[in-house]
Every structure is written in structure tokens, then in C-alpha cells.
Amino acid sequence: MDSRVVNKGQLPELLDKLARDHTLIAPVREEENVTLFKKVSGASEVQLDYITSDVSPKGCIFPQTEKTISYTYTGDTLEMKEQDEPPKTVLFGVRPCDINSILALDPVFEGKFLDTYYLEKRKNTVIIGLSCSTILSTCFCTAFNSGPCDGKGADLMFTELGDKYYVEVNTEKGSSLVEAYSQYFSKGDTDKLAKAKEEQAKKLEGQFRRKVDLEGVKQVLDENFELPYWDKVFKKCLGCGICTYVCPTCHCFDIFDYVTGEFTGDRFRCWDSCMFPDFTLMAGGHNPRPSRKERVRNRFMHKLKYHLDRYNLDGCVGCGRCISKCPVNIDITQIIKDLKEVGQNA
Amino acid sequence: MHNPSPLTPYPATVTKIVDETGDVKTFTVEFDDPQVMENFGNKPGQVAQLSVFGEGEATISITSAPTRGKFLEFSVRRVGRLTNVLHQFEVGQKIGVRGPYGNWFPYEMMKGKDLFFIGGGIALAPIRSLIDFALSDQYRKDYGKVEILYGARSYNDLCFKHDLFERWPNCPNTKVYTTLDRPEEGWDGHVGFVPNYVEEVNPSPENKVAIICGPPIMIKFTLAVMEKLKFADEQIITTLEMKMKCGIGKCGRCNIGSKYVCVDGPVFNLAQLKQLPPEF
Amino acid sequence: MMDVIQQLREQAKKLLEEKKVEMVIGFGEGTELARTTPVFITNPEEVSALTWGPLCANNLVKYLIDYQNLPGNVAVVVKGCDSRSVNRLLTDNQIDREKVVVLGVPCSGQLDWKIVAAAVDPAAKLKGFSDDGESFTVNTDAGDYKFDKKEAMLHKCLVCENPNPVVSDITVGKEQPVKNYEDRFAEVKALEQLGTEEKSVFWDKQFSRCLRCYACRNVCTVCTCRTCVFDQMQPMWVSKRNNLSENTAFHLIRAFHVAGRCVDCGECDRVCPVDIPLRKLNQKILKDLGDLFDAPTPGSEAGLASPLGEFATGDPEEFM
Ligand SMILES: Cc1cc2nc3c(=O)[nH]c(=O)nc-3n(C[C@H](O)[C@H](O)[C@H](O)COP(=O)(O)OP(=O)(O)OC[C@H]3O[C@@H](n4cnc5c(N)ncnc54)[C@H](O)[C@@H]3O)c2cc1C
Ligand code: SF4
Ligand code: SF4
Ligand code: SF4
Ligand code: SF4
Ligand code: SF4
Ligand code: FES
User: Fold this and answer.
1) 3-state secondary structure of C279
2) Do B128 and B219 share a structural domain?
3) Separation of B254 CA from ligand 7 center, angstroms?
4) ipTM passes above 0.90
């Protein structure tokens, strides 16, 4: 693996250049307490000292609302227009958990039916990761083979070390970008920085408050669909969409038409949530997941079992967003702990 | 060549409309580009997503067998937004079709066996593709006796009357049993619910596969009868319905446990069904 | 505050033991020091799960809408502002007074849990709270943390009208004085000063980041429609597209739908995952209703009709 050094003082210039040549998406401080990934026109808009963005950056590849086709239909003539190719994009400043989540989403959109909407954006996007330097009390990425400085899945991984960024070049895409902007990426003393990064990672790993152990949890869920435990958990759930909309690995969507004129319209796909009652409501009024109990169970089953069954990858990356955002403190780490206990007492 | 995204439908034209019952119509649909039909490759039991532009999409079983010709048939019940508008359609109007999606009836495994079809109401639609497949000139020799037991609430609720009373009874080694839930003036056929009629007909499980599709309550009682008749779980095949949107295993809503009905189903045998959590 | 917890538990135990209620809905310890979580207690042996303090912001009255349909009665722990929801639901015939036991707790303010979480050692264990009137002290095994009310309290508490529940069957704890730390509508007045263009810039920025997660609706005690217009597919009043125009339609419909019924409990504002200041919208309407109709805060008195739900000859607009 190749590595480089970027001087901190030169980062703004690099970001300005990236924004000039690409669509640059980076963390932006939207309000005092809100950080979101947005398109920026230069370094001055980028917020580098954020910890976890309020909504995950998955929307850059899987937008909340996306036009799939436009149509003109007059009754006897029909024309359809597909999406244009997505622009060349650089997604800058992504934390390890969120990079990991893109790896968890990939197999959903790959497979027998290639989801070109996702895959073309994925192909056209260079992901530049940014190691964490602060661990929130809700973070638990280490439970999922990741960590605060883990660059797995990033094309380039930046780690802030003193007045420098240590940059790991992980992929072809990353290395082409380094070449194109080579004046900013020096060879420098990368060995020393690599060591410093390792030390930093170790130090940070000691700061996690949530020690989450998944051993045996999937087995409990494999063996038990019905558990009295679910009767307890769901009671306080409000059935809102927060936990699924902020989650970087949720991928559910709805498809519908929006009429724009007498003969014209657009078809969209939009994020949807398994916590909403109409998600599974069928013609005739039958609903296979009729109450919040089944819906809460489905969410945790998906995160902790179904995704593993289908793709052999964890359905959660430990970003902690659903924990800090849930208005009633439904906490996936508590659920994991409780399920483990259920398993041990069985 | 242009590679359409998996959610883009192919343009098609409605070429024939048959009124089946008060709220079910069968639409014959032909793709505007004949090449699309050549490559479509639908197998009996699969579904498609129909687009009515301005209304969205609906998952509908392909009720015609590929052996029938270069068209697709869809029997659609009027239940909501899209299906209401589709029912106003006239021949010549355009719709969109994408698919085929899902697995299909294991017709290879059924070779050499007798087939016993059981259907209720509009749920004859998904199994009709297999009936026609097995009764086609090309494949008839691969299957033994074909029996079709079908019921509805009233005579007017019987779908595919032409098939039931004219086409199928005249096929070789084929028998059709029809029943109505309640007696009705002018009906001299069988009266009674489907599960009871199955018990009366008393099919032997010997070298036979039963294909069942109907409303949940009918399925429930019919399965009890099949068990009594000593059919093994592997000999009983059904197709499931869940709310679907994408049809391609991405949108996440049609799951039963880890399985997506749109890609891992809709066809399951009873043994497989018993492995799934009871959430459908 | 510790004695309030003790009394709450005793009362809950009694209610359950005497079968006066089947369930007590209250606050329990959360998964982090700075958080509490709703608890649903059916067994008198489990009342020790109940807690109370300045980290109990949730309005539990929402749960009555669902859980009053259980066999037996339900008791619910309410703060002053929450109690307005009880009145409101009674007026709307959404709950049956006979089935509900209100466990009222006078309240001296609720802290913003995020401010507390950011200040305390995440490994610390909570020991208790104290309140000297102007600040809360959070006592933990890792030391005490003092929070000035003016800085760390939720805005609704700085301008609280009803620290003491306006409806209560069993009141636990000492009556609290009304203290207005600032003009109740100061923020709204500041917004009113902006020009049309500036207002639109302000709200466009807010609405454009709405996720349409509908948490603000789901948490709201006056959102009780069986099928919400936003879930209706036929006709589709507001589509699922997330863009400024649909989001704005959502927000305006929501605000006007709760106008005259919103009890200003601030829950929508609290739960929003992207900090959209929904309370400012609601408060603007509240202020106008006060100015135009002399209407008190909905729910602050029993049986108050909604000023927009009735006609009086003295109304400012003579539209009929
Ligand atoms: C595998 C499968 C095969 C099907 N085969 C047929 C068939 O051969 N003939 C037929 O008439 N119908 C079939 N259906 C049902 C059909 O998909 C729905 O009736 C149709 O989508 C309703 O569309 P609508 O716009 O008219 O209704 P809407 O106005 O969208 O909704 C009316 C009601 O139908 C529910 N609904 C919406 N979309 C679906 C959906 N995709 N699946 C189930 N319920 C839905 C809604 O929640 C609502 O309760 C099948 C469904 C599945 C999953
Ligand atoms: S965020 Fe919390 S309350 Fe909302 S649906 Fe998720 S678990 Fe339920
Ligand atoms: S389930 Fe929660 S913690 Fe896990 S990835 Fe999703 S939002 Fe993050
Ligand atoms: S099923 Fe639920 S938990 Fe799973 S991806 Fe969809 S919305 Fe998220
Ligand atoms: S508004 Fe009043 S009653 Fe409500 S939490 Fe704040 S101080 Fe307590
Ligand atoms: S809670 Fe916030 S993000 Fe969610 S719908 Fe309401 S305003 Fe929008
Ligand atoms: S219909 Fe989308 S996953 Fe099955």
C-alpha cells in the first residue's frame, strides 16, 4: 500500500481545486448543532472538526429522492427518458463507520439486478476518508471489524497527525487522484506517520465507552423469531422514521410517479422505512407486520441477522446515530446486550 | 447498446381486454419492440411490474404461459389507485412492463408427475401460467394427469370461464372441478368451499404435486386437508404475496425473515414455508 | 428530588397493588447518564424502575392514545406542560377521563440532555440531582456537574407558564414557582422583525433539510388522526419527494393542523433529528391566537375550546 503526506496548511487549496474539477461533497456545519454532507464550492464551507454527521453521507450515492425516469405519455405514444450520467464526485471527510456502511450497501445494489442508479454514482465517486479524533459515547464501530482510523473501503484515507495529514492510498481511484494533484501529496516521512497513526488508533480504541460484544447474538435470533423480549422493547417506540433515515446502512425505498403536466411526469424513488405502518400494508388491508412490535423486531432483525444471512456482512456499522437520535432512547447496544442475556438464559 | 436501468419499464401496448368478473379484467399486452419479448424469457409463476404512467407501478403475476404466444396476459383486480385507472383502459393504450421477476414453479422437478391445482378467486391467475404450460402441445407429454379444482364465491366471481368450461376440459387427460361457495340459480355444479371439495375429490398423493393458491383463509384450511390426505410438505407448492415495489431485491419491503419474496419467491413449497417466520 | 422519586414509586405501587390501574407509564433510567426512557410498569414489584429529575423531557401523554385501550386503567407521570396535553386530549374526546390516573409532578425545568452528555464523564454513574433554583447539579461518582438553568435548560422551560400540572389526580412533590427567564415570545418577535425575503431565506434553509421522518408528528399529542394526510396515497396531498416545495407544504399543513390545539409542550422541536425549530412556528401561531382572540395556551384550562374551532361575534375577521 502506498502512502503520502498532505500539509495541513495546504488542505484548503487542495479542496478548492477538487471542488473546481469535481462535484465536491463534504461535511458542512448547517446550524450550530447540525452537520450534514453537502455539495460545497470550496474549502471555506467544509467543517473538518465534526465528529459524526447528523445524517449519514449515504445520500451522495443513494439520495433520499431520486428521479428514475421522466415520461411523456399521451395515451397512444409513450416516451421515457432515463437519468443522465452522474457527475464525477469526490466525497471528502467520511468517517470509518460511514465508509464501512457503503461496503455494506454495495451487495444490496449489486447482484443479479445491477442497480445502475447506485452503481454509477458509486463508480463516479472517489471516497476520501477521515480518521476520527474524538469518540462519542454512542460510537461502537469497533464491534464491527472497524475502528476510528480504519481506512477499509476508502479510496484515500486521511489521518490528522499534528500539522500533517497522513494519507493512505488504498485503491486505483485514490492513486489517480493523488497523481492528478501530486503537488499536494508529498512522499514525506510516511513510515514515521504510519507508526504515529497506529498509536493514535490504539489510544482512541481505549476510549470507547460502549463495549459491544456480538458473540452469540445472531444465534439467538437464528433460533428465536418469537421472543417475549420484543413485547417489552416496542412499547415506547413512536414508529417514526428517525432511526432508519439517519442510519447509513438502511436501503429501503419506495417508488411512485409525480405528474408534472397533462402528458408528462417523473418517476421517483425515495427512502422509505420499515418503521412506517404502510411499508407492508397490502391490498385488502392485510399487513404482515401489523404493529410496532413486528416493525421494531424487523429493524433489529435486519441489522443483526437478515443482512448477515443475505450478504455475509453486518447490517450495522456502529455509528451510533440511531442511539443519539431516537427520541425515546431505544438503543441498539442495549438490545444487543439484552439479546445476549436472553441467549444465555435460554 | 443502451443499458436500461433495472427500474425502467419497457413500453408495451394493451391489445385485448377481457372482463373476468365485476372487478377483475385480463389484459393482453404486447411489447412495442418485439425483440424485448424474445429476450423476456418468463417462466410460469413469475411476476412483472406494470406501469400505468402517472399512477406508478403494481406487481402482477404473469398469468399466461410462455408457450401461448408472443404476448403477456395479466389478470388484475381493481383495488386502488393504479388498478382503478388500468380498469378504465381501452385497447391500444400504452403501459410499461418490467420483469420477469421472482422464481418459478419447479416444472422440471414436476416432470412425469400428476398435477393437482387448487385455486380460489383471483388466485387462479398465478397458477394459470403453469396449467397452460403443462397443457401446451409442446410439454403435455412431460406431465401425467392434470386436475384443476377451482372455486369462487359466486358464478360471477369465477375468473377464466372460457378456460374452465371450454379450453381445459377438452385437453387430454385433464379434469376440471369447479365449485361455488353458495348455491345459485342456474348453477348445477358443485356447491361448497374449496377445502371441503378437495376432501371430497380425495386426490391420492401418489406421484402427485399439488399447487395451491388462494386467499389466506382458503390456504389455511386446504393445507389441513392436504395433510389429512397424506401429502408430504415437499409435494405442496404455493405462491406468496407481499407488498412489493422494486421486484429486484433492493427496496427491502417484501422480506419474510431473510428471504425476499420478489427474488427468493414467490413460489415456495410447504417445507420451505415452514422454515420461514410466520410473518406473511 | 430523591424524595419525589420515592413518593412516585410508592404511589405507583399502591395504584398497581390496589388494581386501580393496570399500567403506570413513567420515566426510567436511560442507557446513558444524561437520558431517561419511557417505562411501562405493570408489576408492583417493578416500580423501582421509575425515576424523576431534570432529564425527563418526554411528554408521556402521547402513549395514552394507544394504551388507554388496554383492559384496565392507566396512570401516567406528567409535568406541568405535559398536563396541558391531558386537557387537550380530553377536550378532543381522545381519552376517557375515567380510564386515566394523572400522576402530576411539579417541575422546575428540564435540561437539554445533549448539553449534559457533552459535559459529564461518559463512564460516570448517576447518583442524584439537586436544584438550587437557578441551577441543577448532577451528582455522579465521578464528581458533580453544575448546570445553569439559563444556559442548559430547554427553551420551553425558560418561559414555562405551568410548572405545576393543570390537571392531576395524585400530585407528587412541592409546588414550583412560575419563573419567566425571558419574554415568552422573544424569539418569535425577533423573527417577525425580518423582512419577507429574509423570513423566506430562514425557513427555506430549515425546511430544506427536513428528512420527513415524521417524528415531530408521531410524538405530538394533538396529532391523533387515524389516517394522517401525509400518509394518504389517494389523493396524495404531499408526495414523498423530499424537496423544498413538498417539505414546505408538509410543514405548513402540520403547523396549521395543530394551530389552536398545540399545547406548546415542545416535543416536536426536541425530537427533530436535524434541529428544525418547529416550536418557533407553533409559537408564532400561539402568539397570534393570543393577540387576535385573547386565547390562552391550549390545554391550560379544562374544557378550553380551540379558538379556531368556534365562532364568536367578537372575532377580528368578519368573514361570514
Ligand atoms: C407476487 C404478487 C403477485 C400479485 N399478482 C397479482 C395479480 O395477478 N393480479 C392482481 O390483481 N393483483 C396481484 N397482486 C397484488 C397487486 O400488486 C396489488 O393489488 C396492486 O399493487 C395494487 O395497486 P393499486 O395502485 O391499485 O393500489 P394502491 O392504491 O397502491 O393500494 C391499494 C392497496 O393495495 C396495497 N398495495 C399496493 N401495492 C401493493 C403491492 N405491490 N402488493 C400488495 N399490495 C399492494 C396498498 O397498500 C393498499 O392497501 C400481486 C401482488 C404480489 C406481491
Ligand atoms: S427512532 Fe426510536 S421511536 Fe423512532 S422509530 Fe426508531 S426506535 Fe422508534
Ligand atoms: S443501526 Fe444505528 S448504530 Fe447501526 S449503523 Fe444504523 S444508525 Fe448506526
Ligand atoms: S428493513 Fe428497515 S432496518 Fe432494514 S434497511 Fe429497510 S428500513 Fe432499514
Ligand atoms: S415547560 Fe415547565 S413543566 Fe414543562 S418541562 Fe419545562 S419547566 Fe417543566
Ligand atoms: S422531526 Fe424534523 S426531520 Fe423529521 S419530519 Fe419533523 S421536522 Fe422533518
Ligand atoms: S420488492 Fe423490493 S425487495 Fe422485494
Assistant:
1) helix
2) yes
3) 5
4) yes
Q: How far apart are CA C42 and CA B180, in angstroms?
A: 50
Kindly compute the dihedral angle of the four CA atoms of residues C289, C290, C295, C298, in this order, to the nearest 10 degrees.
70
For cell 447506485, the residue is: A118
**450550530: which residue's cell?**
A32
The SS3 assignment for C90 reads helix
Which amino acids bring their CB within 6 angstroms of ligand 4? A 244, 250-252, 273-274, 298-299, 302-303; B 252
Q: Residue C293: which of C314, C262, C320, C318 has the closest Cα?
A: C314
Q: What is the 3-state secondary structure (H, E, C) of C291-306?
A: HHHCCCCCCCCCCCCC
Q: Is B83 in the pocket of ligand 1 (CB under 6 A)?
A: yes
Residue C214 lies in a domain: yes
Note whether B219 and B193 are same-domain residues.
yes
Here the CATH number for the domain that contains residue B148 is 3.40.50.80
State whether C166 and C199 are in the same domain.
Answer: no
> Where in chain B does DSSP place strands (E)?
10-21, 24-31, 47-52, 56-61, 72-77, 94-101, 114-120, 146-152, 174-180, 190-191, 208-213, 236-239, 255-256, 259-260, 267-269
Q: Which is nearest to B254 in space by CA: B233, B272, B237, B276?
A: B276
Residue C59 cell numbers, joined: 411528554
Residue B118 sits in the same domain as residue B235: yes
Q: Which domain holds residue C194?
A: 186-293
Q: Which of A34, A236, A268 sits opposite C241 (nearest CB)?
A: A268
Rg (chain C; Cα; Å): 20
Instruction: Identify the nearest ligand to the CA of C270 by its number.
Output: 6
pLDDT band at A283 (very low <50, low <70, confident <90, very high): confident
Q: Are residues B223 and B120 in the same domain?
A: yes
Mutate to test the pocket of ligand 5, among C52, C83, C110 (most ligand atoms within 8 A of CB): C110
C-alpha cell at B163: 378456460
Q: What's the distance, CA B167 to chain centroid?
A: 17
Which element (helix H / strand E) includes C50?
Answer: strand C50-51
pLDDT in tens, A58-86: 999 999 999 999 999 987 789 999 888 89
Mean pLDDT per 10-residue interval, chain C, length 320 residues: 90 96 96 96 96 97 89 95 95 91 96 94 91 94 96 95 96 92 92 94 96 96 87 81 94 92 95 96 93 88 78 63
Total-model pTM: 0.93
Cell 418468463, residue? B42
Helix intervals (H) in B12-124: 34-40, 81-87
Number of domains in chain C: 2
* pLDDT tens per residue, range B8-62: 999 999 999 999 998 999 999 999 999 999 999 999 999 999 999 999 999 999 9
Domain that holds residue B84: 10-101
Distance C270 CA to ligand 6 centre (A): 10
- What stretch of H or E contains B272? helix B270-275
